[in-house]
Amino acid sequence: MVKILFVCLGNICRSPMAEFLMKDLVKSRGIQNDFYIESAATSTEELGNGVYPPVKKLLAARGIDCTGKRARQMTAADYNKFDYIVCMDSSNLRNMNYIAADTQGKYRKLLDFTDNPHDVADPWYTRNFALTESDIERGCEALLEHISLKEI
Ligand code: 4NP
Questions:
Q1: Atom of ligand 1 nearest to the CA of 12
Q2: Are 147 and 2 in contact (CB under 8 A)?
Q3: Tens digits of per-residue pLDDT, 31-90?
Q4: Using only C-alpha atoms, what is the Rg of the chain?
Q5: Whose alpha carbon is nearest atom 14 of ligand 1?
Q6: From CA 145, how far away is CA 149, in angstroms rounded?
Q7: End-to-end alpha-carbon separation of the chain, Å?
Q8: Other CB atoms closer than 10 Å to residue 27's CB: what's the count?
Q9: pLDDT for residue 152 is more than 60
Q10: Residue 46: helix, strand or coil by DSSP?
Q11: Which residue minimizes the CA distance to atom 6 of ligand 1?
Q12: What average pLDDT does range 13-39 have in this prediction?
């Protein structure tokens, strides 16, 4: 069982998008039982709130239901629970280190698994949800590839 926690600032846009796209990806490969996937925020900004409506809509267009997901904050206990703690940008990484020091090298930025590493832009500010979706989709595929190579 590989446990992945996706992290962003608010846990209403990017990390839930990554959580649900990754769940969909492993399901499409028939390997969903080998994974435990969640997402969390670094901030307390949106705690308890559902997925941001434009993200919910974009997921629904792919047949993915994220009803019931509520923003939660990452905890120090998450550090021990998860194998991969994958964030969206350098600012997330800094904030995660305030929650738990990365003593076991579990922290990564999602697009560092791709051949074009860069921060996933926050659509909360850019309003470009399609760009975020394609970046996160590519990142999830690269992350799965990385895990498959390691686990086999
Ligand atoms: P996210 O986007 O980190 O991708 O979930 C944001 C959501 C809310 C806020 C910032 C970013 N906010 O400041 O409330």
A1: 5
A2: yes
A3: 999 999 999 999 999 999 999 999 999 999 999 999 999 999 999 999 999 999 999 999
A4: 14
A5: 45
A6: 6
A7: 13
A8: 13
A9: no
A10: coil
A11: 10
A12: 98
Catalytic residue check, 34: no
> Residue 67 C-alpha to ligand 1 middle, in angstroms?
18
Point out the catalytic residue in the list 13, 78, 87, 122. Answer: 122
Q: To 5 degrees, how large is the angle CA 7–CA 96–CA 33?
A: 40
Among 17, 94, 124, the mutation site with the greatest number of ligand 1 atoms within 8 A of its Cβ is: 124
Q: How far is the CA of 59 from the centre of ligand 1 (A)?
A: 17
Average pLDDT over residues 85-113: 98
119 annotated active-site: no
Q: How many helices (H) and strands (E) does the chain have?
A: 6, 4
Which residues partner with 4 through β-bridges? 37, 84
* Residue 151 pLDDT greater than 80, yes or no: no
Q: Tokens for 21, please give them.
A: 């796209």
Quick one: which atom of ligand 1 is closest to the CA of 45? 14
**Pocket-forming residues, ligand 1, beta carbon under 6 Å:** 8-14, 45-46, 122, 124
Q: Chain-wide mean pLDDT for the chain?
A: 97
Which tokens belong to 34?
Answer: 């080998």
Mean pLDDT of 1-12: 98
